[in-house]
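Thread: quick sanity check before group meeting

JM: Hey all, I'm pulling together slides for Thursday and realized we never actually wrote out the predicted structure for the chain we discussed last week. Dropping the sequence here so it's in one place. If anyone has concerns about the input, flag it before I start.
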Amino acid sequence: MKILSADQMREVDRAAMEAGIPGLILMENAGCRVTEFLERMFAPLTSQRIVVVCGKGNNGGDGLVIARQLWTRFRPASLHVLLAAAGSEFRGDAATNWKTLQALGIPAERQVMPEMRPATLVVDALLGTGLEGPAEGRALELIREINSAFPLARIVSVDVPSGLHLAGESVRAGYTVTFSAPKVELALSPTCDQAGEIIVAPIGIPPALIENDAAHWLNLVEPALFAELLRDRPRGANKGTFGHVHVIGGGPGKGGAAAMAGAAALRAGAGLVTVATNVRERSTVTTLMPELMTATWSDRVGQIDAQHVLAVGPGLGHTEEAEDLARKLFQGAPTPMVVDADALNALALTPFHGSGRFRVLTPHPGEMGRLTGASVADVQSNRVDISRRFAKQRACVVVLKGERTVIALPDGRVYVNPTGTPAMATAGSGDILTGMIAGLLAQFPERHEEAVLAAVWLHGRAGELGALELGEMGFAAMDLLRYLPQAIRSARA
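JM (edit): ok, ran it. Output follows.
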């Protein structure tokens, strides 16, 4: 699914109207989709006390349609329209809907009245994607009113929470019904935290206008992209069918990291997994999971062929031997490779290049800073562009971990992953992701990109499911593997 910026959405709307779809119809469809959501989520609407907050632009016009639909179809226990400006200030299609609202006698006010405060639902149609810069003036006052003046209310935002901007205050929505495609602010941290649950609703814009690659730059990871990878396995399959992962890591005192990556590769479906560690760490591996085969670094260097998948870095350490090994494998191994943790640090600020081999880098923001020479603050403020640029320059896939993990491909495509939870901010989560990516790459040698997307989505989804049951504070990295089967089932549903 494409993710659109405000400018791209305006261009799509313009193209739709040029194709013969009147703006008034698009506004009507938008209002109907939100009303249908309210009916599904908060039935019976006849018992709800509803306030619809409308700005004077197209977002406010959508709100006027919603108010009319609620009034004529459901007659809630109470319905009030709260206006940011005088009705005479509406323009275009919004003005047409304002005249209809007046004709129906639906009450509209400029101030929050005492009878509005017991509202059970607030529909935020104050500001849309046309906002440039932080909200101010009357709009800012109403944003604060929406957030604080209705203590009993659930808040549903129309298209985007009003005021959604990095530098300003915005509505804190429980739900956001957005139109045609997710917007950038809804997909990326930290603004996505204000949007609540996001529902993408079609309003009649032809999909071809949205899927035009020449006009878009971001995509949302969703199970439809990798569903075929999760189909039932062939009845005649054997362990050799599903690939062999070699995990290279586990320096002195760090065998657990390599062992977790190996366990994750197995749980993700790899047929065979060998974990090569420092000689003293081999027992740590088999203690965690006896199905894992073990080896030492020196055993593995000359035994990797193109049918294997490498996962290099978990617990590798910072010795000269370890760093030389990571660089040697990156440049010389003929097989797909996932590079994490200490192996990333070994590559940092060296002129490494994928050179046609499939290489997946999985940095957290600090490691991405070391790879690029940027500060963590710069990385976090520009995650998409930094990841895309680095992936193209180095001919690698970049999986920049964190809230809304970014997956950048060497050809410039970028995906944003919507799954995950703060419960995953715990030691070992990255090792599990490394193993899962390697395990899926091993099974699908002709579908590497889909394998990476699947691993990232499932990793986050397993975290969400585990956190629901165990809580955020009581969650540990190995719990991801406990909930991975459930995550796979949810993706197949």
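AS: nice. Residues 235 and 241 are 11 Å apart (CA to CA). Residues 448-470 form the longest helix (23 residues).
JM: adding both to the slides.
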